[in-house]
Design a protein that fits this description.
seven-stranded mixed sheet; 14% strand; Aspartate Aminotransferase, domain 1; pyridoxal phosphate binding; four-stranded antiparallel sheet; Aminotransferase_I/II_large; alpha/beta; Aspartate Aminotransferase, domain 2; transaminase activity; PyrdxlP-dep_Trfase; 2 domains
Length: 397
């Protein structure tokens, strides 16, 4: 074998995703309705464009020199996080990264050794497992509640072994759209504290929060960083800006981490950020952070799309989880076969994501990042194909 064993394992873990991505990229139909990945389908937010444009013109001779974490970006993030979460973050707690993906990579390099186990939610983001595999870490799946997709603290407790080093949680959750309450974090904190003491080794919590600012109906948000001191937070601006191609995010250390350990982590943020491949955002993106803190997709418009799609599908007897956050809608495939449902829709030029990418072959995910026109155009096909599958046949056109 030419590639390393860990590369082979990572590739195998993500093959279903890359194959699907290739299929979507190959679509050659200007009228196709693509509701798969969380990509933009309209021009970029004016606030994003203006923030970046203002930083393109150099203001000093080192404007485009090597950048680690820019102090002004750290200060803005720490201030915003403190206001959002009610915790006293300091600039030194913040490492600027290449999106949430970069923040997670940094956290795992800081906290976990080869062979350590990392517990991940199921269903959960499809890149958790390959990211762990390529880092010589062992993913251990802990299912969410199969009906409500609530956090199942008991399932996490059962998954813990002496080799457990990190537990990853995600709220608002991709793909289900669930937002977990503080009571869940308090219960999980008790489990992790007890297990850490039992095994004589600290278990860390990584809170994956790239959708934190995308919530519906005024629902409150609680971060586990306020319940369990041994927590790090990863965040991406790419979701709230709907600009995943502009890599900007951060890793934040909970201010509740005991002082000695917090200082050790702070000192390691820059050198490990360098060691993982210069994982810092580009200069222009970091300079833009103060302006981008106030830029967001139109949540009212996303609420309208969510409500329209949710109502249409539930009226047509679909089992759908009402999203509390994120920009996805998660449902059970009519007839119980997500691939059959998605393939039949693709034959009509409508593309949604089968749950097989999340190890859930009976479910599907629809992205709300398409335009309202795309949503309206997709609804008749979603409903008609669903009815045909429930009746035992499929009308492709």
């Amino acid at each position: 074998m030419t590639i390393s064993a860990r590369a082979s394992e990572a590739k195998f873990a993500v093959d279903v995703v890359t194959a699907f991505f290739g299929r979507i990229e190959a679509i050659d139909d200007a009228d196709a309705i693509d509701l798969t990945f969380g990509n933009p389908h309209e021009l970029a937010l004016p606030g994003l464009v203006s923030a970046m444009r203002e930083q393109v013109e150099p203001q000093s001779d080192d404007w485009f020199a090597y950048k680690t974490s820019e102090p002004e970006a750290q200060e803005v993030v720490a201030s915003g996080l403190s206001a959002e979460l009610g915790l006293d973050f300091e600039p030194a707690d913040i490492a600027m990264t290449q999106g949430a993906f970069g923040a997670m990579s940094l956290a795992l390099a800081l906290l976990a050794d080869a062979g350590d186990e990392v517990i991940i939610p199921l269903p959960g983001w499809f890149c958790y497992e390959p990211m762990l595999r390529v880092g010589d870490l062992t993913p251990v799946r802990a299912p969410l509640d199969p009906e409500t997709f609530d956090l199942d603290v008991e399932a996490i407790a059962r998954a813990i072994t002496p080799r457990t080093r990190v537990v990853i949680v995600n709220s608002p959750a991709n793909p289900t759209g669930r937002v977990y309450p503080k009571s869940s974090w308090d219960a999980l904190a008790a489990v992790l504290e007890e297990a850490s003491a039992k095994h004589g080794r600290r278990i860390w919590l990584m809170s994956d929060e790239p959708y934190r600012r995308i919530r519906f109906d005024g629902i409150d948000f609680a971060s586990p960083a306020g319940s369990y001191p041994w927590t790090v937070i990863d965040y991406s601006y790419g979701k709230v800006l709907l600009a995943p191609g502009q890599r900007l995010g951060y890793l934040a250390l909970s201010p509740l981490i005991p002082a000695a350990e917090r200082d050790e982590l702070r000192e390691a943020l820059m050198p490990i950020g360098l060691a993982i491949g210069w994982g810092f955002p580009d200069a222009i993106m970091q300079y833009s952070v103060p302006a981008l803190e106030t830029v967001s997709i139109d949540l009212a418009e996303y609420t309208r799309k969510r409500d329209r799609l949710y109502a249409a599908l539930t009226d047509a007897s679909f089992e759908v989880t009402r999203p509390e956050g994120t920009f996805y809608l998660w449902g059970r495939a009519p007839g119980g076969d997500a691939v059959a449902y998605c393939d039949a829709l693709a034959a009509r030029g409508v593309y949604i994501m089968p749950g097989t990418l999340f190890d859930q072959p009976r479910h599907f995910r629809i992205s709300l990042t398409g335009t309202m026109g795309m949503v309206e155009a997709a609804i008749p096909h979603l409903v008609e194909v669903g009815a045909a599958l429930r009746d035992g046949g499929v009308r492709a056109s």
